[in-house]
User: Fold this.
Amino acid sequence: MSRAISREETFKIIFEYCMNGEVNELTLEEVLNIPQVEEDYVKKVYYGVIEHIDELKQEISNVTKTFSLDRIFKVDLALLLLSLYEIKYMPEIPHAVSINEVLNLAKVYSTEKSSSYINGVLANFAGYKNE
Assistant:
């Protein structure tokens, strides 16, 4: 099983949730049928992000004070939600690993400038949480 593949597939269904605002059990089932996907990880993160979405969005808003959530590219928002959930609720995953993996996904799925933006938000989040 591969955590990187699991994280990538989880990002995709979080993105779908960001776009539709609904849980799509069919899509989740399809993801869970991918041979290298860690079912426990995917379910924990996907349902965890959905359960804590308002809180996670508030955390992002606290860091991006001058940049409204509505203006954040949905791909970037999904990546931020994924990483913030891991940072806040999955202490077994080192923060640096979560951030690095999300930045790698941003380089594949988002704009040229997105990885810098996401890195800045996550760095500010880490600073914000330590205040």
User: Anything to note?
Assistant: The mean pLDDT is 92.
